[in-house]
């Protein structure tokens, strides 16, 4: 009963603080827009400069083929050499088509094309290289210029996201990162504020136990986190077109345990921080950075190198990113992802025990 009383007190205090209300509901909404519209993992419209010394029909068709896929866009040629556009930053690659290009191809002769790529951005360089190779192969096949017939023909079909809509990949992951940061930040600030203002001493003097105190705060801020989740998911569904296609029960269980983990992590941080500014810094360093870089939101987990890959295994955000993409993109069933809410529940339990023990020590020492 005292747990519910503590939760009611926390919600009442939360409602009276206008700044905290704005932090709780306005900033997550802005964050959804920033992540959804600003995060782009696929390179597009990469400037490429082309110099054509041939001017024949085949060379012009070859150039049209290169720029037809939407990844590359024409850039102006600056200077006399092929390095000119790269040195001046006008293009990320240059393509030089030699004279007699069309005539040699018609005679079945080899006509080398020079491609120089700026590899300062490794991802762009890889995209340009693969794009040029693929479009060159398509150009040769479409004009029956392949010298050797392909003996193997792969029939490729895109599954789960056949339209390659990047928002279906970014938005579910972004909701996971946002719902980790802001509930965590709210509970950490609430805990640190009581220590900073000295009001936590009243709790030490009361009969409430450390477990009841932590459980009450967790219950209150988990309810607030659910409201945040509704707002964030509604914006993502309206603006980015994501829809729940997986098992709703497993997603709800994952969401509940994930929000509880986020709140408990904030309380854990708040018990260690003596000021609100210190709590914010600790959440930003240990919460935001790890959730952004080690959860699988931006980079595949397999790309995280050792020993940082070990840290990703204990991050709740890592499991909820997977649960979100299963729910909104893959449409996985209950049995294939039941381990996700179990892992999140284990994280929440560990944080609950840890925060309760720290609170207990603080009570015994009088808040020192």
What attributes does this structure have?
368 residues, mainly alpha, abc type-2 transporter like fold, 2 domains, four-stranded mixed β-sheet, 14 helices, 4 strands, 64% helix, 5% strand
Protein described:
With about 375 residues, the chain is mainly alpha-helical. The chain folds into two domains: about 1-40 and about 165-365, no CATH class; about 45-140, abc type-2 transporter like fold (3-Layer(aba) Sandwich). The chain has 14 helices and four strands. It has helices spanning about 1-15, 20-40, 55-65, 85, 100-105, 120-140, 165-195, 200-205, 210-240, 250-270, 275-295, 310, 315-330, 340-365, and strands spanning about 45-50, 70-75, 95, 115. Helix 9 (about 210-240) packs across helix 14 (about 340-365), helix 10 packs antiparallel against helix 11 and helix 13 packs antiparallel against helix 14. The protein is elongated and about 95 Å long. About 35% of the residues are buried.
């Amino acid at each position: 009963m005292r747990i519910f009383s503590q939760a009611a007190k926390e919600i009442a205090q939360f409602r009276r603080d206008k700044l905290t209300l704005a932090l709780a509901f306005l900033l997550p909404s802005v964050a959804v827009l920033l992540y959804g519209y600003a995060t782009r993992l696929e390179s597009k419209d990469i400037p490429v400069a082309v110099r054509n010394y041939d001017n024949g029909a085949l060379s012009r068709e070859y150039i049209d083929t290169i720029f037809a896929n939407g990844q590359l866009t024409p850039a102006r040629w600056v200077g006399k050499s092929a390095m000119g556009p790269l040195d001046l930053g006008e293009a990320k690659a240059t393509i030089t088509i030699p004279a007699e290009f069309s005539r040699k191809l018609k005679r079945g002769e080899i006509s080398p094309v020079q491609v120089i790529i700026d590899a300062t951005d490794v991802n762009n360089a890889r995209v340009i290289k693969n794009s040029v190779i693929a479009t060159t192969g398509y150009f040769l096949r479409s004009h029956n210029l392949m010298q050797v017939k392909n003996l193997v023909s792969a029939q490729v079909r895109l599954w789960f996201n056949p339209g390659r809509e990047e928002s279906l990949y970014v938005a579910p992951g972004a909701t996971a990162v946002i719902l980790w940061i802001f509930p965590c930040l709210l509970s950490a600030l609430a805990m640190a504020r009581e220590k900073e203002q000295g009001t936590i001493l009243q709790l030490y003097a009361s009969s409430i136990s450390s477990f009841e105190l932590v459980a009450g705060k967790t219950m209150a801020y988990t309810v607030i986190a659910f409201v945040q989740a509704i707002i964030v998911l509604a914006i993502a569904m309206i603006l980015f077109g994501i829809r729940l296609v997986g098992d709703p029960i497993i997603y709800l269980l994952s969401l509940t345990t994930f929000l509880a983990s986020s709140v408990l992590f904030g309380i854990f941080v708040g018990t260690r921080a003596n000021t609100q500014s210190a709590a914010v810094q600790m959440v930003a360093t240990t919460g935001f950075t790890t959730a952004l870089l080690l959860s699988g939101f931006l980079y595949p987990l397999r790309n995280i190198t050792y020993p940082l890959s070990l840290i990703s295994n204990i991050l709740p955000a890592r499991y909820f990113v997977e649960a979100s993409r299963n729910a909104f993109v893959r449409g996985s069933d209950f049995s294939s992802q039941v381990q996700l809410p179990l892992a999140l529940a284990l994280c929440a339990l560990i944080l609950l025990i840890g925060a309760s023990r720290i609170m207990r020590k603080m009570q015994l020492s009088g808040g020192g």
